[in-house]
Structures
1.
Amino acid sequence: MTDIKPRINHVPREEWTDDTREVFAFWGEPNAWEEGSKTNIMNVMGNHPDLGKAYNIWGKHLLMGNTLSSRILEIIILRVAVKAKSAYEWHNHVGYGMNAGLSLEEIEAIRDYPEGGEWSEVEKAVLDAVEELTSGGNLSDRTWDVLASHFDTKQMMDLVFTIGHYVMTSWALSAFGVEIEGGADPIGFDLKTKSGRTPGKTYKPGEKDDWVDTRGY
């Protein structure tokens, strides 16, 4: 996680426009319009405001308005982070996953799937869906049928698009060289932090008044 070389820099302050500030402020960070975002991906997306604004609207549905439960959502994102080797997504979503009720042992089992873990039928099918879509570009009839026995049509659509969105986002983070935020205590794929602290819950935008502070940067 320390060997990332930024390929797209943050937008220099003197080049900020109102459109750039809209990208920074979209998620409700305090003072982001005036001071910029504390989140590196937003600072990079500010280089292309039209794309950044569209990405934010799309991403907010999948992160905040998803018809899937938070637990299922975080299982998907964490497994995608492993498959795509995205240290940034892994670091951020370990805390989200814990807030959604996942234990560190379950997060370890997501990393190591199919080894370990005591998954329900639907959770196993969700993990299989990540494997099948990222490896072969489609879902098997068996996996589809299991998922469809638990999820309605909107949930099935959100599931497939969530997997694709976080693969795309992981690619962008890696290709653009987006670093984990300065001041954060990075959580590795071994579930150890740089400082040796045990990872804890973090909160999505707006879940708590101090949601930014829980991230440690």
2.
Amino acid sequence: MSGTGPAEPGSWFGQPRGLTILFLTNMWEQFSYFGMRALLVYYMTKSLLIEQQAASFLYGTYTAFAYFTPIIGGAIADRWLGKKKAVVIGASVMALGHFLMTFEATFYVALATIALGNGLFLPTLPSQINDLYHADDPRRPWAYNVYYVGVNVGGFLAPLVCGTLGEVYGWHYGFAAAGFGMLAGLIIYLAGSRYLPPERRFEPAAAQTQRIRSDSRRAYGVLLAIGLAVTVFRGAYEQVGNTVALWADSGIDRSLGNLTIPMTWFQSLNPLLVIAITPFLLAYWQRRAAAAREHSPLQKMAIGALIVAGAYLLLAVAAGFAGEGRASWVWLAGFFLVFTVGELFILPNGLGLFARLAPPRFGATTVAAWYLAIFAGSLAAGLVGTLWSRLGHSAYFLLLTVIATVAAFLLLLIDRPARAVVAARELENDLDPQAGLRAS
């Protein structure tokens, strides 16, 4: 069990050892997911010869259902399997799905298999983070940002390894590499499970039950509102692997001297920048917190959505200047820089907020609700992606700018009620110092 001090003997990187196991496990899962995702649209349009509109819609539908199944998987984990068994079963099924991607005949079966395995894996892994800390542990507020850096290492390596194998040697080699990455994550989780706290059952006293139900209703109301705003945001955000990837192929001059930059390498910029920027962003937030000027989680998320809107505005300008020609790859690199800063403001804070507001015994289910918003947003992204062939590139990127701006406005509207619910939950944790160590 992890202690409450910031310098726990034997800890790794200043955090509980269990956090390292969790982010290494998810690092390899992200390697497999982003490796397959980097190839998916290209594979459908170039190898399976699926037309662009159908491929974009299929891409959005797949990513949507990969984030819908966690709702069912989270409930199964909370009620029957437990978090650890759910992670092991989910990772095994996902690995099978990635290997099925190496055969054209099993393409649709493979996508369904990966989505089903993801349902058990995705909500149960991050929901274990809170179990590592006492409620008053000073490391706890930054745990999800540390976790987010770890998983982006996998996202950085995936397009470089899987993407290069797919483009140079054949798509199926890239998909196979993604499968081996998933197996690596499973092995790490099994080997390091002794560093994770045992799962516990929390049974509230009868006098607490009514208050917990009342607080939970308020929390779920706020989380539903946040989920709706995030759904709008994801309609723009998810275009990175969809229409932005298509523009990197058709609208960008990828020449660098005598070399041509592979299309999939640009998708490695995002996770690389996450790794590079996060320490500076954490230091900035810590200084604001020390000066009692820290933004609330919803304010941070709204700022992030506006920054992402600015990134798409940059692409609109680039496409406008290029006209019928190709824009320099520098524009796309600049887009990923701005885009990543916005992402760091919104995504780790959103996931952490859902985990912090999880009612007792429903940790995996509540975290799964975060992925339900991603499911709905991915469906919206698939529909928005069908407009790529109908609008001019500049007009299309301006549409994404508007979508992200609307999401920022919605998040700001939710800020005040969200702060009240967060304050109530933190007060409950202060009265029960072991709250962070209960199995949800």
3.
Amino acid sequence: MATWLITGCSTGLGRALAQAVLASGHNAAVTARNAATLEDIAAAYPDTALALPLDVTDRDQISAAVQQARTRFGGVDVLVNNAGYGYRAAVEEADDADIRQLFDTNVFGAVDMIKAVLPDMRAKRSGSILNISSIGARISPAGSGYYSATKAALEGLSGSLHKELQPLGINVTVIEPGAFRTDFAGRSLTQSATPIDDYAETAGKRRKENDTVHGTQPGDPAKAAEAILAVTESPNPPSLMVLGKDAFNAFAAVAEAERTELDTWRDLSLSTGIEG
């Protein structure tokens, strides 16, 4: 039995993962900005579930959540940084305050969570950190530049963290989902207040009023949760796990296109060394 701390459990993948973890017999500190949304989960698993209020941009709440998990269960074995939200805007359209709030939640919130659990994990020489990213970090759609940037930042950080922690017995895995049938493209999606007409055919097509994807996404959150459980139970977990056929195919296409472009410009790339 392991103890999990999962952020962003009110809906979607976080909620599905919380239920799967608890159904598998693990302890779980399940968190959301409004802990009342988690009362049914806590009631269903009174001995192993701890529902806590947590806004990942609030360091005091982070410290309190980790301490309460430690007091109730003895510590955190698995941290899942799932809390976050989407934001759509052309790069030029985005409001500065919106951008900073997005990074504070999607990037720095995860950083602060990691820093809060690592002292105990290092002391035990064991643990697992799962950072929920997005295929957006790979494909960078028009209109999702800032969201994709937050996930690319999280992935870059995770890559270095993996190298730092693996010798200490702590695993780091990036989970890169495609489109799953959650509220991500509904309530959880925000966008710039004022669109610019010149971007109507690029970023504009991804604005909420023009997007017909919500409710038709191909991914099943419950199956994603089971896949994440399988990753943590693996004796050799991956540093990156792609979830969903759409994400897998998009990842492969981007990798192939990048390799083609790398080879196309090979001679010029290699021409820049000092000779002699």
